[in-house]
Specification:
Blueprint (H helix, E strand, L loop, with lengths): L1 E5 L4 H17 L4 E7 L4 H4 L4 E7 L1 H6 L1 H6 L2 H9 L3 E7 L4 H9 L1 E7 L15 E3 L7 H13 L27 E5 L11 H13 L3 E4 L4 H11 L5 E3 L5 H10 L2 E5 L2 H8 L4 E5 L4 H4 L6 E5 L30 H11 L10
Parallel strand pairs: 1-2, 1-4, 2-3, 4-5, 5-6, 7-8, 7-10, 8-9, 10-11, 11-12
């Protein structure tokens, strides 16, 4: 049975969909998938063994440059690729109006969340069959249940299996071993752990023989990484990496420490031991999920606030204020416990 998935973004949401494909592959031998996804995340679906074709879409870029996209014929090329095959079933795993419209353009029986379950209720009008999947549970559980309902099998009572084909990742060479990766970047300023805390954590890692690597996604993150690296003896700011290269590096790390971000979910999907910090947000419905995952939550009067910018105006030694309840010593202790107090074990 050939099925089309529509799940365009974001990084964490795309990764959250992989376990549902693993469930379907186990329950329905021979099932195959094509996947519509934002061009910036197009590497990820191809990592799963049940995916045949990735259909990139550029909604984000098209909104910024509609005339250029039209002149280059990008709209027509995408539509031809989307409609080239008639699918037994089409599953909108996102529940947004934009994803529903893409679902409506494809050829096949359309499935998705009903009005009470979709993030944008009007999206449900695009589906021929819709399902009431409770929103009071983790996002991965919701997607697994949606696939099971649409494809006709029972959700297995197992931990999510992302089933990433590691041979497709770009494994970096010439790295100092053993090492940890600090995922310091986040799209919300309210998620960003204080820079001085990162510097102290890097020093603690160096003191036990661990090299520190730091990726970045924009100029501000690169500058912060360089400042942190300047405080430690063995800390390296990475060059710009694509997702496959980042995944290869994360998969070979001793451990990860990160804030609530897409890369933290990538580490979880790779089953790399990780400590993930939550202040403005909560791990209850969208936290990292998988083997070797440890959450540290801020214990503060207004946490989790779910606000992009910290608005706390009381006394505090750091910003965001909630992170004063998650100092580096606590994070380091959690990391050592996760590693069994043996940080010098080499994974290679």
């Amino acid at each position: 049975m050939k099925t089309l998935i529509v799940k365009t973004s974001s990084l964490g949401d795309v990764l959250h969909t992989l376990p549902a494909l693993s469930d379907a592959m186990e329950a329905l031998p021979g099932i195959r998938f094509d996947w519509v996804v934002e061009e910036s995340f197009a590497e990820i679906p191809a990592w799963h063994p049940a995916v045949d074709k990735v259909i990139p879409v550029a909604l984000r870029r098209w909104r910024r440059q509609p005339l250029q996209a039209f002149s280059r014929g990008e709209y027509g090329k995408f539509l031809n690729g989307l409609r080239a095959h008639e699918y037994a079933k089409i599953i909108d795993a996102q529940g947004l109006i934009k994803s529903a419209l893409l679902t409506r353009l494809a050829r096949g029986e359309r499935h998705g969340l009903d009005r009470s379950a979709a993030r944008e209720p009007w999206a449900a009008l695009a589906y021929q069959k819709s399902y009431n999947i409770s929103r009071q549970q983790h996002a991965i559980a919701r997607v697994r249940q949606l696939f099971a309902a649409a494809l006709g099998y029972d959700v297995p009572a197992t931990l999510p299996h992302y089933n990433i084909r590691r041979e497709l990742l770009s494994h970096p060479h010439a790295l100092s071993h053993p090492y940890i990766v600090l995922l310091h970047g986040a799209s919300w300023s309210s998620k960003q752990w204080p820079e001085l805390y990162w510097a102290e954590l890097a020093q603690l890692a160096n003191n036990t023989g661990l090299h520190v690597y730091m990726p970045w996604g924009n100029a501000a993150e690169r500058e912060r990484a360089e400042r942190i690296a300047g405080t430690a003896r063995h800390a390296t700011v990475l060059a710009a990496l694509n997702l496959s290269e980042l995944a290869g590096m994360l998969s070979n790390a001793q451990a990860i420490v990160g804030v609530d971000s897409g890369l933290a979910h990538l580490a979880a999907a790779l089953a790399t031991p990780s400590v993930t910090l939550y202040g403005a947000t909560s791990p209850e419905k969208t936290g990292t999920l998988g083997r070797g995952q440890q959450h540290i939550r801020a214990d503060f009067i207004c946490s989790p606030c779910m606000a992009r910018v910290c608005s706390y105006r009381g006394e505090s030694d750091v910003t965001p204020a909630c992170y004063q309840t998650t100092p580096p010593a606590q994070v380091w202790q959690a990391l050592m416990k996760l590693l069994g107090n043996t940080p010098l074990v080499n994974n290679n």
